[in-house]
Amino acid sequence: MPVKYVSHDLETLTLTITAEFAAPVQRIWDLYADPRQLEKVWGPPSHPATFVAHRLEVGAKTTYYMTSPEGEKYHGYWVLTQIDEPNGFEFEDGFADAEFNPNTNMPVSKNVYRFESIASGTRATYISTYATQEALEQVLAMGVVEGATSAINQIDDFISH
To answer: Which residue windows are coiled coil (predicted)?
Structure first.
């Protein structure tokens, strides 16, 4: 399994996931840069993603939705804040309505994704920071750890084909 470490810290308001992939950094970057590849691994296997708009450029807004087994759609968005190709990127991630307007009743996280070369391929570190302890606790209760872990664990199989 690619995911090696998961922790959350209510003092620093962070959720950190570390994973290792049997592929070079550029391949992992390419996966995140291409919406058709990304939708194969974003979201847990039970909730496949569809990316409507996606460009890894500072200021760009990514929009997507995940579809439940019952056909319910859960919309989200990213606003890209920093790009360091191929070493990573930063973005704000939020929940949205069906028109991709931010859902202000749900938490927004600031995310830092970093990719570094290691002997076996790539180590990816995913850090999400929330504005309040309540926001972090809310997404933890919603299953963000399980969902993110199962999504990330799909990457090795996808890139090996």
So the answer is: none
Q: Let me know the angle formed at the C-alpha of 157 by 152 and 161, rounded to the nearest 5 degrees.
A: 135
Q: Which domain holds residue 87?
A: 3-159
Type of residue numbered 136: L
CATH of the domain at 84: 3.30.530.20
β-sheet bridge partners, residue 8: 15
Nearest to 83 by CA among 119, 115, 50: 115
34: CB partners within 8 A, 6+ apart: none
What is the tally of structural domains in the chain?
1
Give the burial class of 95: count Cβ atoms within 10 A of its Cβ; 0-12 exposed, 13-18 middle, 19 or more buried.
Answer: middle
pLDDT per residue as tens digits for the range 121-134: 999 999 999 999 99
Average confidence score pLDDT of the chain: 96
